[in-house]
Amino acid sequence: MSEPSQNFAEQGAAFQKLWLESTSKLMQAAFTFSPNSTPPELVREIRDHILQALGESWNEFLRSPQFRENMRQWMENAVAFRAMSNDFLARARHEMQAPARDDIDAVLLNLRHLETRILDRLETLSTQVEALRQQPPAETASAPAGQGRARTRAVPRGAKNRNHNPPKAS
Asked: SS3 of 154, please?
């Protein structure tokens, strides 16, 4: 026999032994009762013994090294299959000149980073505007009543101020 089939046969024999033991425990539990108990109590005792034996056998089965190894292999195969199918679908989409899932995920991630940066900047600006609104105007606080400073209009860079008179040369 080859190694994989022998290994499979050994695992099957271990599984069969485990279930035969649990079935025999169930039968023993079903027929162990006290002769003085009334029928409803007898049924409860049988049920309790059966459930206890089932719980023990399932606990033993789920904690067995064979079950753990099989579950580990199954999970590894599932992860490998998922990665293989994702790669295959990505290649198929790229060959059709369509965006793959990874491409869309990258764009969405970049948009999320951009959104976060914009929201952080807006929060900073909002805080600064609120701080400026709470400050009293500088010109009314320092000037005597009725004598406010003359306001000047801001001139953009590179523009000429028409009201500006250059100093006269003497």
From this structure: coil
The pLDDT tens digits for 106-126 are: 999 999 999 999 999 999 999
- Encoding tokens for residue 4? 């994989």
Q: What is the pLDDT of residues 154-167, one digit of tens each?
A: 555 555 555 555 55
Neighbours of 22 (CB within 10 A): 17
Please return the burial class of 45, using the count of CB atoms within 10 Å of its CB with bins 0-12, 13-18 and 19+: middle
Query: Where along the chain do its domains lie?
Result: 11-98, 105-135
Q: What is the pTM of this model?
A: 0.40
Q: How far is CA 68 from the centre of its chain?
A: 26
Q: Which residues contact 85 (CB under 8 A, 6 or more apart)?
A: none
Residue 38 CB-density burial (10 A; 0-12 exposed, 13-18 middle, 19+ buried): exposed
The helix/strand/coil state of 98 is coil
User: Of 22, 20, 24, 44, nearest to 33 (Cα)?
Assistant: 44
CA distance 42 to 143: 101
Quote the CA–CA distance of 153 and 158 in Å, as a whole number: 15
Instruction: Copy the structure tokens of residue 77.
Output: 């195969």
